[in-house]
């Protein structure tokens, strides 16, 4: 008796039971039947990943092109072209990068890959500097950029169409000023920067997640409440929530790292599911943190960092290779798809409006205040909780 | 500027824009927020796979248990228990094995794994026997089982509640008499049968897919049309559709195998996406065949069989290892989940009704006519298009 049979029967239940209207001519035996809508969802996903992968192959056919333009830019450009075609054919913008897709499916493999293969010695040696940049640096960037843009508006350099108060600009500042791990990985790995610089900027981009999330939540709540209704306890709550989100996320990650280390001790007779377990439990860590509004990026980073030593010791050599290359492949695939979809999403002009003052002002202030923040920590090395970086390590 | 930021802004668009009703008390800053429904879908999938994987680990802790009871049976039993718990808690049957999930997500990795790692020499050496069993054998089993059950009903041995004519019984016969690859793999790999027996039964289970699909489609159409309306051309169409479905499916598979062999020639500089390409193109073959109502099982089997030599020669050693173990892991995971979900689905008693005559009759006739069919080919070896099997290879 066949599984297939039982399921085929299940699948066919509906058409068999449909009432036959006696007036209509009875359909003969069909030789062909086109059932696009049944396979639509997985087909489209597979197709877009395929397009992105093929584009990657084409870009790398010529070494000249990729040495001149970073791959991520090429992918965004491809996305713009494809988005334009979709827009022309379908008359509306489709296949946009949805926040749900990004946070639930595309971001986790990238962060897991980077957490799992994080050079942990280098990371912990520079933890002080990383935390300084991630917490103090991010707060500094967000507030100064937001405040400066508000100043720009007060000075009348932003189109009067932009109706926003100081709180709105701070909200925008908290969004725009954080360093992002996807872009850092894409660019830094391609240009092969100094490893200390890499670990500091990359570590910051991972650890600032909690700060960004909290800052965004707090500013957003304040905007919703209106500045008049914000009370002193709300500021305290904001500070408390920074600790809850970051330490909570890290704790979730460590709990799952422990579970993973424990489970892989018992897989000697079922080696085949070892790679699966690693991905499943790390993903569960991410989703659990996301569900509780904790920092999911911190959770999966800590899970990867925490479990690696034990997992690698427990699982077989073949499982180790599979975990390593599958993780790299998934992360690379997610990154490729993100940049392509970013390009496609940028085509939808109904969402965007150009404002020279705001755009150029933002660009300038981000760079300016970031440089100022870094110069500060270098001029006052006593502010750093660890021995300061040798200046030679920071080339800008 | 951060990707994260742009997307966070997108995600928050809705709550920010919601109109505030002035009467309601304004919410203060929230420290915690539980967002289960946002992560529900991927969380549940991850959780069920995790449960199945952990169960597998537990079963294999004791070698005694798995040597007595096949793993697939243990998983079905586990499913029954879990299904019972779900039924008791939720008061309704949930997490059933849906045909869509089975055909789009669980079956493809299993068939790809078996097609890709098919011992091709052994397969082609026994192709005649395999085809005889897959086409003639399956037709024989379906018609005899269906007709015999109809005879049983005419003899009054089936509860009168079962209202069905000869065509309905033939439809049932076409469903129930085909050998199924998932079960063959699960059982035969565990008991380590003779390799010729394995390739014949397993090959049959893959190649009979086209026959089963066509037989089911034809019988189903005839039942819908009513036996009085079936015309001579419909029988011809049925025969033609057997060729369309099988050869069409195989052709789709070979086209994708060619594409895969071609694409992997150009991946020397982007080794990281090689494993992804293999899975994507094989899956695209499956979905394309499924979409055109061709035999998707044949398509992915032929794709795996056809591309392997070229792909293995083109991709790097590390990619080969990754492809191999990822394929095995995915297939094992899919198989595990299928058997567990089968158990869970069996709990829903509203779908089932016991009829001793029908159940025992079906069991008996399937075994009886299958044995008769095999005895036939052994007694009349000239019927086989290839030299007959040495009798020693067939232990029953």
UniProtKB/TrEMBL annotation, chains A, B:
Residues 49-374 form the Cation/H+ exchanger transmembrane domain. This is Sodium/hydrogen exchanger. The lineage of its organism: Eukaryota, Metazoa, Chordata, Craniata, Vertebrata. It comes from the Eukaryota. Keywords: Antiport, Cell membrane, Endosome, Ion transport, Membrane, Sodium, Sodium transport, Transmembrane, Transmembrane helix, Transport. Gene3D superfamilies: 6.10.140.1330. Belongs to the monovalent cation:proton antiporter 1 (CPA1) transporter (TC 2.A.36) family. NCBIfam families: b_cpa1. It is found in: Cell membrane; Recycling endosome membrane. The keyword Translocase does not apply. The gene is SLC9A5_1. It comes from Saguinus oedipus. It is a multi-pass membrane protein. The chain crosses the membrane at residues 41-61, 73-90, 130-152, 164-188, 197-218, 238-262, 329-347, 353-372.
